[in-house]
Amino acid sequence: MTNEIVLSVDAIDAHYGHIQALRGVSLEVKRGQLVALLGANGAGKSTVLRTISGLVRATAGRVDFLGEDIASTPAHRLPYRGLVHVPEGRRIFGGMTILENLDLGSFVLRDDAERKRRLDNVFGLFPILAERARQDASLLSGGQQQMLAIGRALMASPKLLLLDEPSMGLAPLMVKEVMQIVERLHRQGVTILLVEQNSKVALKYADYAYVLDSGRIALQGTSDELLRDDLIIKTYLGSPIS
Questions:
Q1: Is the CA virtual torsion 96, 98, 100, 102 positive or negative?
Q2: Residue 113 in domain
Q3: Mean pLDDT per 10-residue run, the chain (242 residues)?
Q4: Which strand (E) or helix (H) includes residue 114?
Q5: Is the pTM for the entire model greater than 0.85?
Q6: E strands in 136-207
Q7: Looking at residue 138, what DSSP letter applies?
Q8: CATH at 197
Q9: Residue 137 domain-assigned?
C-alpha cells in the first residue's frame, strides 16, 4: 500500500429529485487500501458509490479518480479508466451463461490473450464458476451470483473496485466466504471501497472506515479506532461488536 490517492471525494451533494441524499460528503481511498463505508439503512451509502461511478450526478463538490475530475464523465466510460462498480443486488444476467457474464466484464479489452489470463485468474478465485461456466447464471445460488458479480468486475482489471453490500441476503457461512474473497483481493493489492451494513464484518477486514449518518460523514478512523469505542458502535453502527 502506498500514499498515492486513487479516489478523492470532496464535499459532494447528491439529490433524488427534491430529496437531498448526500450533504458535503468527503472521503479518500489510497492505492491498495480497503476502505469501508458504513451506516444504517437509508444513510446514503449506496448513493455515494452511485455518485462516484456516475449513475447519480453530484449536484455539488468534486470526485477525483487518479488525479482527474470524473464528476461529469459518463458512467459507461469509467470502466475504461479502471473504475468498476459491483452494484447492490449483484445484477447478473440470467438467460446468459456464466462465461458470457464474465466476458461482458472484459468489454473494454481488445487483447484475447489478456482476456484469457484474466478469466483464468477469476476461475482460480472461484472454482465453482469454472465448473459451471456453460450453465445459465440464473441457476447459481445467491452467494455464487455474488462471486460471479465480483468475477465480472475483475475481468476489467479495476484500479478501484466499488463493492456495494456483497453480504446482503447471504447465509452466514456464505457471508464469511465472500468476505474472505474480498480480503484475498485486498492482499493481492486491489484497491477497494466497500459499502457494507454488516459493520462487524466490514471492520474486521478494512484498513479505514467512514460512517454515514443521514447523508453526512459522522465519523471516520481506522478500524481499530472505531472498534475500541462501544458508544460509537451502539450509536452509529447498530450493535456492539464482540
A1: positive
A2: no
A3: 88 96 97 94 93 95 95 91 87 88 85 90 92 91 89 94 88 85 92 90 92 94 85 64 39
A4: helix 112-125
A5: yes
A6: 160-164, 192-195
A7: G
A8: 3.40.50.300
A9: no
